[in-house]
Amino acid sequence: MRLRKPVVTASALVMLLSAAACGGSGGDEATAATGTCTTERIGGSVTQGTLLSPRGLDPVGQPGAAGSGGTEVQALFDTLITYNAETQAYEPQVAQSLDSNADHSVWTMKLRDGVTFGNGDALTADDVKRSIERHQSPSNTQVSRGEALTIASMDVVDPLTIRFTLDGPYPSFPHVLATDIGMVTNPRIVDAMGPDQFALNPRGAGVGPYELVRYTPGEEIVMAAKNDYWGGPVCIGTLRFISISGADATLDALRTGELDIALLREPPAIDEARAEGFESLPTLYNYGEGIVMNSASNRPTADVRLRKAITAAIDPEAINNRVFNGTALATSALIQEATPGLYSGEKGPAYDPDSARRLVDEVKSSGWNGSIRLLADNSPIRVNEAIAVKALLENVGITVELTNDMSLAEVLGRVASDRDYDLVIWGPNYTNEGLWALMNRQLNSQSKSNYYGYADNRMDAALADLRAADTVDKQQKIVGRMQAILNDSPVIANFAAYEEDNIHSNRVGGLLLTRGSVLRYDKAFVTGS
Amino acid sequence: MFHRVATVLLRIIPVLIVVSVSTAVLIELVPGDPAVAVVGAEGTPEQYAAVRENLGLDRPWFARYLDWLNGLLHGDLGKTLVPPIQDVSTLIATRLPVTLEIAVLSVLLALAISIPVGTWSAYRYGRAFDRVASGLSFALISVPSFLLALILIYFAVFRPEAVKGLILAACVIATVVLAAATVGRRGAQLTAQGRRGVRLFALGVFAVGFVLAAFLPDFPRQGFARIGEDGLAENLRTIFLPVLVLGLAESAQLTRLLRSDMATTLNDDFVLASRAQGMPVRHILVKEALRPSTFSLVTVAGISFGRLLGGTVIVETIFRLPGMGTLIVESVAKKEFMVLQAAVLVVAALYVLVNALVDISYLYLDPRTRHVRV
Does residue A228 share a domain with residue A171? Predict the structure, then answer.
């Protein structure tokens, strides 16, 4: 028909113009919400994205990290002591005070009067004791058991006072009560429900600012603010936690407002979020990404010369550029220079491929066939890291058999359970808070969780000194010593520290960052709806 | 007929037995150690061994399968291995309705699109409408569902104003074209009643476009709102995009199928006889030709429904839907064999049941099949 072509052309033009004219709007550029929770700011809701669904809502049995339930249980149970990430100091939270004797082997804690659980029961010292005993029980397979066992005995002095006698001097003992161990669970409710049901429905069992409304494992956790919280008014009325996997999906959700807060780990995603104007609450993890070398006697990497060759072969900057587009904190050091208080100036192993080749030739001449197995999980970042590492190792004469098609769970099994690996792309993740507890578990030759097979008397002695260090200066010197030990007898060829960042929109203010990227919501508020 | 129905239903049992045994064997072949998922990365070798013993992970697969079967026959599907420890039946009860809702709505949407489009394409075989419909169907069949999902997300979530503008523009253009068809030489070919009908239809199209552009809600990038907790409106808002993705993908093949069958049926003698008797087009298409053309459509729709019940993992992952697909994939990763056995059995049972209902529906669609010996 004569009119058909002009009609079709005109139609297409109109639709294109309509779409262009009605393009999506950019984000608003409100300023950050400042201040703290006051009665005038009560109201509103917040949705937070998490990396993994928690293993239930019982503090006993938690890995203790923000990425897998740490913030959620913090909101329900609070902690006896809190770690202030800004001042780098421990402060009493549910406890009123925590004092030690001269050598820090006996600690006396007084509880605040008038603190109640969600069901109205008063919080007593006996409740604290029974709660911590749950963490010490052999049925607790998590990290917290080892830390709870630093407490040799507990004595209830009076209903609000408890005395902890430790297994030795431990000036950083407040760290223990700032973790899941310091989250007091109402023992009467736990006994009545049993631990499995309690983990699904801990209503009334916490002294935290929030009470559980709904928990659908793998889907969402919804909490409502308590109006009788011991710490005063709780501003944000409803908290909702959902797990979203993948940095891209998380960023999308932040941009559309479906999430107000999310924990990001990937350096490029963090960079992008900050560039778009989102607020940031980062936590630095040292020894964040590297190549863990199995030092067990039946492995090629039992030979310290080979481990030194591998560390010398790794160029952190090259990996940073190749994998992270330059956005990561490239370093081979134990402590990255931005770590507050602990950086002593000691450098990690230098990138020295010539030295690496010499050492590789030496080890080959001792009978090694030159081949080594490298394990990495199949996440996109680890696959890219593994490819870069393989290239760097082959550059110095090492033949690498790369396996990077396993899930993280399978790699965990091979490393932690079977201990069947030579090299694995891994991040031990040491924060400056609780450093001794983290390092001792993995690097102490007597630790049963030392799946690196690492055994060095000098490191054992340094770890013992680190536990007993009562000032940041002393800790810094000991950590400097540890760097020298690790340069001489490496266990990890580190190439990056990394940040976990609680990225959040401008409408949320008053968030308090505590240990392990965990957020406290007791003083948080929202502006607008 | 009752005998036919009973026979079809009884065939389900051996199928389910084969599925459950196969699942148990396949789980055994999946690498990984559930003890690590239970204990975590910081456990000691003794703790891992203790967990394996407590959970029976050190027993042979057929011993674990027989225990599970015994539990199933007593109505107990067991508990999850990895904390939080939950009843498997409770877990499936929370996930299955999500998948069922999305599968049902997707198939209904697919049928709502494919039946009118396929029917009219067959009637206008080789003409403009048929060519456009076929082209769009081929395009939808060719595009992977995850790509379609990402495209819809880009427009519906991040460019909602553009989508509203496009909808309004498309409706305005359709209104103008329809109105133009009632004037001039083309309009003269229609009766007065016909012209009135087309103009009313054009007005309806404009009104729908205006309402959609004005009141189209914002769709979330991901997540699922349950009816009992957030209400029906919020539930439909959260599942609209995933249902659209799956419905469009299924409608493409159903449209092609119906178009072919219908085109053949329209050449049958009884249809020609109806035309000769002066029956209206609507009567011929809907009352005469559609029913005998739907055998393939019903069969494939049943298969599609079963496939959607198994969960379209990619769409569920993109939209973060807590359905059976993601449950099965997560269970494989964690080697949660109790969950996997139960989930696969439930999906298989529903799949077989739906296809049994499809078989039974033939008895209604074509009474001649009632007398066919099995």
Answer: yes
Supply the pLDDT for residue A12: 57
B102 and B63 in one domain? no
CB atoms < 10 A from the CB of B56, how many? 13
Is B88 in a helix, a strand, or coil?
helix
Provide the residue range defining the domain that includes B286.
89-371
pLDDT at B52: 85
Residue to mutate among A76, A379, A417, A426, with most B CBs inside 10 A, is A417
Residue A462 sits in the same domain as residue A519? no
CATH assignment of the domain containing B323:
1.10.3720.10
For residues A482 and A519, membership in a common domain is answered with no
CB contact under 8 A, B43 and A141: yes
Q: Does A1 or A385 have the greater pLDDT score? A: A385
Residue whose pair of structure tokens reads 């030739």 in the numeric block: A361
Q: How many domains in chain A?
A: 2
Whole-number mean pLDDT of chain A? Answer: 91
- B180 by Cβ neighbours in 10 Å (0-12 / 13-18 / 19+) ranks as middle
Contact in structure between A221 and A74 (CB atoms under 8 Å): no
Pair A25, B165: CB distance under 8 Å: no
Reduced to 3 states (helix: H, G, I; strand: E, B; else coil), residue B349 is helix
Q: Which residue of B has its CA nearest to A58?
A: B84
**Does the structure show a pLDDT above 60 at A27?**
no
Compare all CA atoms of chain B with the CA of A242 and give the residue at the minimum distance. B223
Taking the CA of residue B90 and the nearest CA in chain A, the distance in Å comes to 11
What is the largest distance, in Å, between two alpha-carbon atoms of chain A? 100
Chain B interface includes A406 (CB < 8 A): yes
pLDDT digits (tens, 9 = 90+) for B215-244: 888 888 888 999 988 899 999 999 999 999
Q: Are B68 and B107 members of one domain?
A: no
Least confident of A30-44, A362-376, A406-420: A30-44
Q: How many CB pairs under 8 A join A and B?
A: 144
Domain around A351: 285-499
Cβ within 8 Å, pair A256-B157: yes
Query: Is there a cis peptide before residue A380, judged by omega within 30 degrees of 0?
Result: no
- How far B125 CA sits from the closest chain A CA (Å)? 19
Tell me, what's the ipTM?
Answer: 0.82
User: Sorting pLDDT into bands at 50, 70 and 90, what band is A127?
Assistant: very high
Whole-model pTM over 0.90: no
Report chain B residues whose CB lies below 8 A from the CB of A407: 32, 333
CA dihedral of residues A477, A483, A489, A495 (deg, nearest 10)? 170
**A27, closest residue in chain B (CA to CA):** B158
Å from A463 to nearest chain B CA? 18
DSSP-assigned states of every residue in A262-326? EEE--HHHHHHHHHTT-B--EEEEEEEEEEEE--STTSGGGSHHHHHHHHHH--HHHHHHHHHTT
The residues of chain B scoring below 70 in pLDDT are 1, 4-5, 8-9, 311, 365-374
Residues within 8 A of B (CB atoms), A 424-483 only: 441, 448-449
For the residues A242-255, what does the mean pLDDT come to? Answer: 89
Instruction: Kindly identify which residue of chain B lies nearest to residue A53, measuring between CA atoms.
Output: B84
For residue A374, the SS3 value is strand
In chain B, residues with a C-beta closer than 8 Å to the C-beta of A11 are: 173, 177
CB contact under 8 A, A448 and B46: yes
Query: Looking at the structure, do residues B241 and B354 belong to the same domain, yes or no?
Result: yes
| Structure confidence by residue, pLDDT tens digits, A375-390 | 999 988 999 999 999 9
